[in-house]
Amino acid sequence: MPAQATTAAGMAPRPTALTIAVFAALVAADAILSAGILVADPITMNLWDEAEFIHRGRQLAHGVWPSLAHNPLTAALYTAPAALTRGASWMIDACTAGRFLLFAALWVAVVLIAWELRDRAPPTLTGLVFFLTPVLPDVLRNPSDALFAAASAFAFLFLYVSRAADRFAPRFFRAPSWRSAPSRVSTAFLCFSFSRYS
């Protein structure tokens, strides 16, 4: 079956119902298989990095900005979960919420990349490769790594989209195309991705 539905001339193709169903099944199966990691407990929680980011996220909710050496973007990920959770298990609940957010961000990036690369490979094949890759459980245990992976995936996506808009012109990095809006977005996401460890 085709990976995209036929549309009127000049309109972007839309995914078929089968493609959407396959991706929904992959995400649901991955969430079920990763439930032991997604739902945190004191044993599976990373008591060094993850607990530190949650603590800094809670401080950020109270107006204390962490230094650049302590990955403020990762702390910002936990600001809302840490501020909204209450009770004795607030850190475990914030950890679970953060893992679900990172899981969703990674899958959204994969779905968008798969759709953009549909001319090179079927989108469902790209999703299946990501589903079968055993790296996701390990990445989710360290929020800094998971956020870096998601941000890098979005950076790749925006670079690919902006270059596709220029029809892969070899002079892409010359000044006129470099100042275009998609290229600025790509540059911003690349800087966001790689400056987190500076």
Helix content: 55-70%
* SSE order: EEHHHHHHHHHHH
Number of strands: 2
Number of continuous helical runs: 11
Describe the structure.
This protein is mostly helical and 198 residues long. The chain has one domain (20-197). Helix content is 66%, strand content 2%. The protein has eleven helices and two strands; from the N terminus they run ββααααααααααα. It has a two-stranded antiparallel ribbon. Helix 6 runs antiparallel to helix 7 and helix 6 (90-116) packs parallel to helix 9 (143-165). The chain is globular and about 50 Å long. Mean pLDDT is 80; it is low at 6-10 and 168-179.
Write the layout of secondary structure elements.
Elements: E1 4-5, E2 14-15, H1 17-33, H2 35-38, H3 49-61, H4 72-77, H5 79-84, H6 90-116, H7 123-132, H8 135-140, H9 143-165, H10 175-178, H11 181-194
Antiparallel strand pairs: 1-2
Helix pairs in contact: 1-7, 6-7, 6-9, 9-11
Q: What features would you highlight for this structure?
A:
198 residues; mainly alpha; 66% helix
Provide a brief overview of the structure.
This protein is mostly helical and 198 residues long. The chain has helices at residues 17-33, 35-38, 49-61, 72-77, 79-84, 90-116, 123-132, 135-140, 143-165, 175-178, 181-194, and strands at residues 4-5, 14-15. Residues 6-10 and 168-179 have low confidence and may be disordered.
